[in-house]
# Entry
Amino acid sequence: MTIAVEATNDPLSVNHASGTMPVTHRVVFLLLILLSLIAPFFVYPVFLMKVMCFALFACSLNLLLGFGGLMSFGHAAYFGGAAYVAAHVAKVWETTPEVAILLGTLSSTVLGLAIGSLAIRRQGIYFAMVTLAFAQMVFFGALQFPFTGGEDGIQNVPRGDLFGLFSLRSDFSLYFVVLVISFGGFLAIYRIIHSPFGLVLKAIRENEVRAVSLGYQVNHYKLIVFVLSATLAGLAGATKTIVFQLASLTDVHWSMSGEAVLMTLIGGMGTVFGPVVGAAVIVTMQDYLASLGAWVTVIQGCIFVISVLLFREGIVGLIAKVLRRPL
Amino acid sequence: MFELIGIPPQALFGQLLLGVINGAFYAMLSLGLAIIFGLLNIINFAHGAQYMLGALVSWMLLDYLGGSYWWALLLAPVTVGVSGVILERVLISRLYHLDHLYGLLLTFGLALIIQGLARNYYGISGLPYAIPPELSGGQNLGFMFLPNYRGWVVIASLVVCLATWFVIEKTRFGAYLRAATENPTLVGAFGINVPRMITLTYGFGVALAAFAGVLAAPIYSVNPNMGADIIIVVFAVVVIGGMGSILGSIVTGFGLGIVEGLARVFYPEGSAMMIFVIMAIVLLVKPTGLFGRTA
# Structure
């Protein structure tokens, strides 16, 4: 199965042997850090935190889809599952926020292990359907379990004090915590895709049969990347809960999985920075067009159609093509 | 009145009937998905939206033009089928040289557009659609009460499913279709217009979804989300059955509907999960699906 990554923009092709980061990546990283340090002085911090959570969510999907070649259409299950667990832990068990985020993330690891070990038994289009179906099962669970609060979700989750010391009630102090978490997640993904493990993943994506013939336990690799991806999606979901103090059915709904796919697609599948750009674009669009109601769905559908037909490299993929540098 | 394992027969047979009805919709929708997948190699994510369109078109026919249910049964599948033919020609046919997943993404986008538009113009509250007067009332079968319309849905869907099976397995056109599924290049070399066959197949699969939508309109109210709710379950049905066999799709669809109905009697809390649990078991025991062939 080959997905996206057309022509030049293969981020795995450079410098993985020497272990150093290519210059273009360093520059982009520096720009991103600089931008995220200045931005909260000019833009509403909650909006920025939303962008960062969704960027991490989209990056987690991109790890699976763009680098592992596995199309998960049910990533909302890990995002939303972790959101519910983190909300429950923070509100009912009254723990500090880092414990809530940690437990939420771990719950997604377990869920990813369970669903992943079943889903990797099918390939391609069936894989997408299986992940979607199991995510729907999680949705029904969220609707029925007593602790999730049904249609209301879990509201008024306390932000609490980080390590019991620093209050996160102000958006500004929370902003920097979210920044550290999302950058940490992003760096983890960067490390994974540039490791020997990432190279094997690429080999499996390009030619699974050949990877098997070379003696790789393909299913182990697939399962590991699936669990890693689910964990990072969970980290994004749990962090989102602390920011918005809310876990609701929207977080586990199939349209949330669709949004992650859309962000990855429009930013550039299989690029390092694409999903970040995609998340920024989609979240900004939703924010500006929120008053249009159901038209947002129509516009998102149109973006899907146009991207698939005319714009498969995505924004970052296109820039990488012009610069002839992997991004 | 006698009781079966503590459950009154009315409740048991009532849920069983509901299960058969749901199964009829699973069967018709998964059949369409399987036919489209066989020839186009894409999973038609818009299938649920097109099912909803079938119901919506029949509601519009009645509301704007005063057209009866029977006209809707004919015109709604034709209208939606023609729209499907246009979609295939203009959009989907551009993706055949790419990975299958792009087809999934494109049709997902189409589903969002159709649903969003329907929600904009018709709201989410659901539009009532009356049972046609010829089919109102019901039969008392002694052990249960059978509403005429529900009986009609079961019969109509069975007839349509078996007719589709007959066309594909027993006619010359069906033979071409099966051959093109195996090897389109070779069939094209024999002078058969494969691209046109692909277009017509997509149109037919979509029309089948719309037909199911018309049948569903008087049972569930016409609602922009009705397709999204059912299509994910149908995906699970397709994974359980495998898409290799036409008859397999029909049997799996009806079978799972009945199992779900039984679950609603004996373990109501878990009935929504039932099909997904079965999918997990099938993936463990026979990953290719009950009627699937090894890829």
